[in-house]
Amino acid sequence: MDIIFYHPALTVDNWLQELKQAIPQARIRQWTKDDDAAADYALVWNPPVEVLRQRKNLKAVFVLGAGVDAILNKFQQYPDMLAPGVSLYRLEDTGMVQQMQEYAVSQVLHWFRRFDDYQLQKMAGKWLPLDEYRHEEFTVGLLGAGVLGSKVAESLAAWGFPVRCWSRSKKNYAGVSSYAGDEELSAFLSGTRVLINLLPNTPQTTGIINQSLLNQLAEGAYVLNLARGAHLIETDLLAALASGRVKGAMLDVFAKEPLPADSPLWRHPRVAITPHIAAMSRPDEAAAFIARTIALIEEGTPTTGEVSITRGY
Ligand code: NAP
């Protein structure tokens, strides 16, 4: 079995070592320019079109992350990049669930315990105990309830917050109310105090966090964008912050990354920023997931992680 690997930024040696251990029967090579030899599988992130186009023997491509919006855009640009019949997989969890839970729980507790207000008071040299917030007025709503959203929802429910999620299909997660489809979006938003985005970026979800959506949240809401910058209209968020409709935001992803130096988000006192680090797949767990999935594909057993190219995630 031959596997080619391409990633423009990762510390490749570590990945190759983990992959060789997890799939010892495979010959694994890093793609280099002019490599047009056959490969059964390709493991890639943001690959040049030549890594996949006309690759002989290719059965499946694994994207080395959870989101597939970038590669699907590239397939649109180069319709012959992926031959018909070659399946596309993505990484599920591989360490990202725990990181997303840590990120979301710590930030929701930060807002719930009013540490944002106390930080501003501290900057003003002000000693003033504030009224406490109650769990029942702190409903958390997850946009997206898949591999990551479902687990973040469950971890917040365990902290005693009322939690709801919105997805395409109805869910049955312990302690989480489920809303599904466009017809239930308004009901989901109404009363949501903390909105957490874990949707995939698709033509249906691009720009979803806009003025109309923000206006339907509870007064003084908080927004946590952990998915993609394209989901959020940044000017609409700034307007909602200015009006007080939204009280605070924490953003890990941006329309343009790195976030341009002149973006007003940098200096906004009620906006916290991290540089797209909410969750990253861990090489050892990713290698184990890829090895397991390849074994199932080879024996013809159905497996998870396959992307529906027409659906967009
Ligand atoms: P996933 O398992 O595919 O879950 C996607 C969820 O979104 C599903 O619940 C799906 O509904 C729902 N959904 C999709 N389109 C929808 C629509 N039009 N209306 C309503 N719901 C819709 O994805 P995941 O693994 O949880 O990852 C989610 C996203 O997180 C990724 O796509 C990626 O962009 C982002 N991410 C960001 C980072 C970071 O570091 N910031 C790291 C990892 C991932 P159904 O369940 O009904 O299909």
Give structural attributes.
313 residues, alpha/beta, seven-stranded parallel β-sheet, binds NADP nicotinamide-adenine-dinucleotide phosphate, single chain, five-stranded parallel β-sheet
Put the structure in a nutshell.
By secondary structure, the protein is an alpha/beta fold.
Characterization of the model:
The protein has 9 helices and 12 strands. It has helices at 12-22, 69-77, 96-112, 115-123, 147-158, 185-189, 211-215, 234-243, 283-299, and strands at residues 2-6, 27-30, 41-44, 60-63, 87-89, 140-143, 163-167, 176-180, 194-197, 221-225, 246-251, 271-273. Helix 1 (12-22) packs across helix 9 (283-299) and helix 3 packs across helix 5 (147-158). The model has no long low-confidence stretch (mean pLDDT 97). NADP nicotinamide-adenine-dinucleotide phosphate binds next to helix 5 and strand 7.
Strand order of the largest sheet: 8-7-6-9-10-11-12
Average pLDDT level: 97
Helix content: 25-40%
Number of helices: 9
The fraction of residues in strands falls at: 15-25%
Sheet of most strands: 7 strands, parallel
Uncertain ranges: none
Q: What kind of oligomer do you see? A: single chain
Helix-strand topology string: EHEEEHEHHEHEEHEHEHEEH
Structural class: alpha/beta
Bound ions, cofactors and other small molecules, one mention each: NADP nicotinamide-adenine-dinucleotide phosphate
Total strands: the figure is 12
N/C terminus separation: 27 Å
Overall, the morphology is: elongated
The gyration radius over C-alpha positions equals 21 Å
